[in-house]
From TrEMBL:
<dbReference type="InterPro" id="IPR036465">
    <property type="entry name" value="vWFA_dom_sf"/>
</dbReference>
<dbReference type="InterPro" id="IPR013694">
    <property type="entry name" value="VIT"/>
</dbReference>
<feature type="domain" description="VIT">
    <location>
        <begin position="1"/>
        <end position="128"/>
    </location>
</feature>
<dbReference type="Pfam" id="PF08487">
    <property type="entry name" value="VIT"/>
</dbReference>
<dbReference type="InterPro" id="IPR002035">
    <property type="entry name" value="VWF_A"/>
</dbReference>
<feature type="domain" description="VWFA">
    <location>
        <begin position="213"/>
        <end position="386"/>
    </location>
</feature>
<dbReference type="Pfam" id="PF13768">
    <property type="entry name" value="VWA_3"/>
</dbReference>
<protein>
    <recommendedName>
        <fullName>von Willebrand factor type A domain containing protein</fullName>
    </recommendedName>
</protein>
């Protein structure tokens, strides 16, 4: 995954103007430099910060800032030492910046003052893994731009190394770019300073998609009331229809109490789908507290194994120690995945579920994105899991990770060599495990050429740091962080520009955000005014309009009336937004209704009750479900492209079902396409 930051400033005229990604690939490993160009078009000097959210596979290794005075490189320090140095620099009038990990997903970078009518370049460097599909690297770019972003932001990608590629585009949403994968999946590097040699080997699960065993444990506590429980209902309806036939599934609800939807795992078919769908539609947030440990203990008592277990919560769970212990226990025979919903979820717990449970962790701060985040998990876990894995090398050294209980997608293993590795020496790595009662063995073999560098050392260390942080071994994590120059919770990057100096009194008068400390960050961090990262501070209605934290239109207009005569621009904006929201809601409602029309085998029925115009196309000698299924496939692709991640698996099932049915005539296909074009939503 490629990442970039979001600019936070008190001046609305400070904006991100472009992003350039410079990437060095080593197989599916990548060293990324994301270069942000930031422009201050206002008449004032102002504080600027960057907020960046990384996934669980990426490690920050540094940043730099380039101004008219030159480029300032950051240094990694122990967190408390970095804060002291940053405070001293500010007191003495020097421009300084600091980057620290706010929580398990978020990094804050205080860039400091940017001069009026000037541009600065901020570059962040990090290491990451890229997914591999059919001999191609999948480069993913997340959507971090507000839906009503005024400016179009161009970006470019330049790849060197084992793969080579160049691309330019405009940030307009979540994107995927496929790049040919060149070279082998086994590499070696030597640190010139220490002579340490690390070799990495990436294994890809090549088993074919098929039925799976899956358990969804969902939070129905009181805090899920309203948007939360509605998002959960819609997500589960979609989730059920993504499952392959003959899979087994169970849905568990929890709060102060818990219950199983079925007495045991049931086979996924039309009857169980209909039963579960009806019961999900009646879900309410009426289970009281948040005791996740109880259903986990019940699964342990039931000797649950060979399952994917997805846990969802919107808050902090009770009995967290027991919860982590039970996740550890279940991870020996299952894969566990964590989903955090909303801004108040326990991010650390969600991340630990994926780390401890050998699974995936996602945070959906916006409830409307829940379906998309869970769909990403479902798509990845449809590949059958290989259990009880062992890693073997034909050389001696420390193997990381040492244990792999469940291998379901792609995994990179490392060995820190304890013997001298010669050029062109034959290196072989092997992973062995059990899948569906049969032994699976994958091998990587290469006559190795050792290159100079520490990228593999850093990725190996990052793997260890994550494990140490889960085990609360802070000192050991900090030592590895400092040794390999990787940001962790106990360290911070700091950059001080001593080529410029502001008057001390001016520095003292900078208005700082006193509320930021409540988020675990630096008190010198500026006021955050963007949705999706921090709660907006109280501000005038017009300020809300400027910074994209607009609430419901009625609330804004009422607020303005209390202050005096409402601003006509605000009323016009609110009126337009209200109409847009009404149209969007209608479109979303139709989308949810259409999804529920899919049967377990993939066909769509009763779509004509939602879009009555389909009846005009139906003919006597063709099954209506064939026409409706083809219609929905085309409709989703044409009118709901923003939901592609969600409906991709549904369309796949529908196309498989259609492949065994009579082909529609070109005339009917054209009429269907024409109908879709005419629909207004």
């Amino acid at each position: 995954m490629l990442f970039f930051g979001r600019v936070i400033s008190q001046e609305k005229q400070v904006r991100l103007t472009s992003i350039n990604f410079e990437i060095e690939t080593i197989g599916n490993n990548a060293k990324v430099k994301a270069i942000h160009s930031i422009l201050n078009e206002s008449n004032n000097e102002c504080n600027v910060s960057i907020i960046m959210t990384l996934d669980d596979e990426s490690a920050v290794t540094g940043y730099s800032i380039k101004t008219v005075n030159g480029e300032i490189e950051s240094e990694l320090k122990e967190k408390e030492q970095a804060k002291i140095e940053q405070s001293d620099a500010t007191t003495n009038g020097y421009s300084s910046s600091i980057m620290e990990q706010v929580d398990d997903t978020t990094f804050s970078i205080l860039l400091g003052l940017v001069n009026k009518h000037s541009e600065v370049t901020f570059s962040i460097e990090y290491l990451t893994h890229m997914e591999i599909q059919e001999e191609e690297l999948i480069i993913k770019i997340p959507n971090l731009i507000e839906s009503k972003e005024k400016y179009q932001i161009p970006y470019s990608i330049k790849i060197i190394g084992s793969s080579k590629f160049s691309f330019k585009g405009i940030l307009s949403g979540e994107e995927e770019i496929n790049v040919p994968l060149n070279g082998d999946l086994i590499f070696g590097m030597k640190d010139e300073d220490t002579d340490e040699v690390v070799i990495s080997s990436t294994f890809i699960n090549k088993e074919k998609e098929g039925d799976i065993n899956i358990i969804f444990i969902c939070d129905r506590s009181g805090s899920m009331y309203g948007e939360g429980i509605n998002a959960l209902r819609n997500m589960l309806q979609l989730f059920l229809r993504q499952l392959p036939l003959k899979s087994k599934f169970e849905i568990i609800s929890f709060g102060s109490k818990y219950d199983f939807m079925f007495k045991e795992m049931v086979e996924y078919n039309e009857d169980t789908l209909k039963n579960a769908s009806n019961r999900i539609s009646e879900f309410e947030a009426n289970y009281g507290g948040t005791s996740m440990d109880a259903p986990l203990k019940a699964l342990i008592d039931n000797n649950t194994e060979k399952c994917h277990i997805i846990l969802l919560t919107d808050g902090y769970v009770d009995n967290k120690i027991n919860t982590i212990e039970y996740i550890h226990n279940l991870s020996k025979k299952n894969s566990l995945h964590g989903v955090g919903l909303g801004r108040s979820c326990d991010i650390e717990l969600i991340r630990n579920i994926g780390r401890i449970g050998n699974g995936i962790s996602v945070i959906s701060k916006n409830v409307n994105l829940l379906k998309k985040e869970v769909s990403k998990i479902t798509e990845r876990i449809l590949i059958p899991t290989i259990n009880k894995c062992q890693i073997e090398w034909n050389i001696k050294g420390e193997i990381i990770p040492k244990e792999i209980n469940n291998f379901y997608g792609m995994i990179t293993c490392y060995i820190q060599c304890k013997e001298e590795i010669k050029e062109e020496q034959k290196i072989e790595s092997k992973i062995k495990g059990i899948c569906r009662e049969k032994e699976i063995i994958y091998k990587n073999t290469k006559n190795i050429k050792i290159t100079k560098g520490i990228i593999l050392h850093q990725l190996m260390a990052f793997n260890q740091i994550r494990k140490l942080e889960v085990e609360n071994k802070k000192e050991e994590a900090k030592k590895l962080s400092m040794k390999y120059h990787i940001l962790c919770k106990e360290t911070a990057f700091i950059a001080i520009d001593k080529t410029t100096k502001k008057e001390v009194e001016f520095i003292k008068n900078i208005k700082l955000n006193e509320n930021y400390s409540s988020y675990g960050g630096n008190r010198n961090f500026i006021t955050p005014m963007t949705r999706g990262h921090f709660k907006p501070m109280m501000m005038k209605c017009s300020a809300r309009m400027n910074y994209g934290t607009i609430g419901q239109c009625n609330s804004i207009i009422n607020c303005c009336k209390k202050k005096g005569r409402p601003n006509q621009k605000i009323i016009d904006y609110c009126s337009t937004s209200s109409n847009d929201k009404e149209i969007e809601t209608t479109k979303e409602q139709k989308y949810e209704e259409i999804i529920k029309c899919q049967k377990a085998n993939g066909e769509f029925i009763n779509v004509d009750k939602i879009i009555k115009e389909i009846k005009e196309i139906e003919v006597d000698d063709i099954e209506s479900s064939i026409i409706q299924t083809f219609f929905v496939i085309q409709l989703l692709q044409k009118k709901f492209n923003e939901h592609k991640i969600e409906w991709k698996l549904l369309i796949k099932k529908a196309e498989n079902w259609l492949s065994n049915k009579p082909t529609l005539t070109e005339d009917i296909k054209i009429r269907i396409q024409s109908l879709i074009e005419s629909l207004q939503f």
